[in-house]
What we know:
The strands form 2 sheets. A 12-stranded mixed β-sheet has the order 3-4-2-1-5-8-13-12-9-10-11-14, sandwiched between helices. It has a two-stranded antiparallel sheet with strand order 6-7. The chain has 30 helices and 14 strands. 54% of the residues lie in helices and 11% in strands. It folds into 2 domains: 20-437, Na+/H+ antiporter like fold (Up-down Bundle); 461-797 and 833-855, Rossmann fold, CATH 3.40.50.12370. It has 856 residues and is α/β, with parallel strands linked by helices. The chain crosses the membrane at residues 50-68, 80-101, 113-135, 147-167, 173-196, 208-231, 237-255, 275-305, 325-344, 351-373, 385-405, 417-438. Residues 631-794 form the Cation/H(+) antiporter C-terminal domain. GO terms for molecular function: antiporter activity. Residues 61-434 form the Cation/H+ exchanger transmembrane domain.
Amino acid sequence: MSLSAPPPPSADQSKPDFDMEKLSQAVICFSETIYRVNGVWEGPDPLTPIIPLFLLQIMVAILFSRILNLALKPFHQPPVVAEIISGILLGPSALGGIKAFRNTLFPNYNFEIIETMAHLALVLFAFMIGLQTDVKAVLRTGTKSKAVSLSGVIVPFLIGTSLYYSLPHDDKPGGFVFSGGALTVTGFSTLANILDRQRVIQTDVGKVALSASLVYDLSSWVFLAFGLMKSGSNENIHWAIICSLAYMLFCVYYLRPLLAWVVRKTPEGQGHSEYYICALVIGMMVSGIITDAIGTHPMIGAFIFGMLVPTQALESAVLDRLEDFIMGVFMPVFFVVCGLRTNIDVMASSVGFFLVILIVFFAFSAKTLGALLSTCFSGLSYKEAIAVGILTNTKSTMAMVILEVGQVQEVLTTQTYSVLVISVLIMTIVVTPLTTMYRPSQNLVPYKRRTIEKAKPNEELRVLACIHATNDVPPIIQLLEASNSTERSPVSAYGLQLVELVGRAPAMLVVHTSNRRGVSRNLSHEEVQTSQIISAFDNYELRSEGVTTQVLTARSAFPTMAEDICNLAREKRTALIVLPFHKQQSPEGDMEETNPAIQSVNEGVLINAPCSVGILIDRGHSYSNNPARNIAVLYFGGPDDREALAFAKRMSEKSGVHLTVIRFVPGKEVAEIDPMGFSGYNRSFVSISIDADKDREFDEQFLNNFRSETAEDKSVTYVELVLNDEEEAINAIKAMDARHYDLYLVGRGRGIVSPLTAGLADWCDCPELGAIGDLLATSEFESAFSVLVIQQYMKSCRSAEESVHSSDRMSQMRIDNENDDDNNNNKVEEMALRRSASENESAFESFSSFNGREHT
């Protein structure tokens, strides 16, 4: 049964009657049928009932949003762009301008239903944003970010206010607040994703822009609350302000402590049940009702209540259950309503496209001008300020929320609303291509000590230790403890926890403080891991002399994780990056792969590292909790082996440590090989260009110096093994298993082609380890030990690696085509060789069976 008569039809039948201002003032009819019992047999139109039509509207909204998101993915546009465009396409500016489409899918009588869901989406979205808002992070922003955010709020708001009065507007109060607020807000999560995708998040400009966006996001809620109060009755605005402030104080000083008390009473390890989640959702609804009653909006109450949740574990539990449903189902409906309110035809006829372009230009320039003004007291250069201004023009859902609320409050006309929506859309679209074109320089201070070999005797050793899981911590701490930190030669250890970026979480770098005050309860899994890592590094610093530690957490996607590691290494000016191997030893002794993406990260760091790199393989020694006291270096020659020996020499100076250096020397009967002609030519061996004769001179000089410096040191043993082929080398290394070394240090073997390792190239399952490191990573050893495979930093390393990496496939295709039969024969011979080495392992029980010379 209809509630009232429908509005009279429009005189112009060529254009649909879809004026939001008239529609909001009209009395709309509702279908008396919610759904049909007999389906299509009851009537000819199955979309007349409310529920089927409503479900179809949701489906179309989600479908359009997803399709456009996929279509814009190659252009690296954020999801909010696809959602705004999908709403406009379904509105009167595009498909909604077709009368049949509009009457079928979005009839006037059903608009109140979809609008109600859209505003429910706003309340849930505000609650979700409140959960994700970290007020402490806003207060911790640096001086540059505070200066940029201050000018970035004032200038855009003033320009947005001026643009409001230059457009057709009513005399109702409060419209300028919504206009200025929409141009002021910057989407934190959207900007973080753009910065991470364009790989500038770790630059100074990226950090300042991201920190400033936190302030912009928080200020947008202030503008929204003030605009809602201002658009109401002027007689009662002071009561609305007083009651809102009183409610906020009540929440901060009474409600939040009460929630924290309830969480503390939860038994440790019990987790958060569904009762907690339901209680928080009910509390959010009650808070929304209260703020609506005191004169603001249910969104404000939901946002405030979201910020009150005391622990991140509880926040994560709520978000895990609500975020996907809110962003995937509710918010597309909200953007459809925004699109239905946007009318480009009305905007163009009343304002004109030239004025629209001019307004977009001024709106886009507002942030840039604000950032330029901040150079007077922020220390930013003009170039950096322009970059920050461009980046902070990134808009998010919050800008559309402010405009939508202003339209519902009837303080923004259809023309003004449409102009501002188009401005927000264009401003967000152009940020990504401008970021691609403009790559700000990092202005990092260059440092010389990028290797351990070139370090002075009493110089500080800076190590960046990367951690994917808590299993990586014990072997790393054992390695750091073996590094011989003293007051004269200290060690600065930076523990970098690497967290995969999933969902809509922003990429960021978090610096942690000491954890010596204890661990809070009800932590999330990630927080528990972080706390354990901090405790391990704190304990290492407390029980060691001359050690300083710092723990950081980097959240980024695996494709950009290597670059984040290298950028942090440059910033901290480290001499060594320690990476955990992507395989771990199982209880049965086999090496099992944990995450194949970690291998790609390690390879990326090896190519782009600004210093030496070590890949740490744990073969069960960390389970013993015993320090590494029996250390062995397998020396074949080359810069990587020299770096490994330099690090081992530093370790040998620690009391109680015994170092054994085994040099593998080709014998007189060794077969001659062509460095460019053997089948093992790949990027893991011939990745840099080295003069072989000169490098041998370096080896001899380096070893002579090492032997002369350690001649009186009885804790150092030097052994030379004269061998004739790969089989003898393999068996010699396997025979060392009986000596139960705690730690092996080996070079990655770039730039050298030793006849004792050349035939092992085809058998490398992990090329990033080199031939010897790959052999030690196999499951053919019974004792528990760790292996550190070291690559020394060289100036030409990055360009040479990239060149070989890019041409590797073409070179391999050429070699395969020319020597297919020879390679197959070589593989058969190598297979027999490996079997022979395994069978005869017992024949090499000690070094005395070789034609070697031992020096102590």
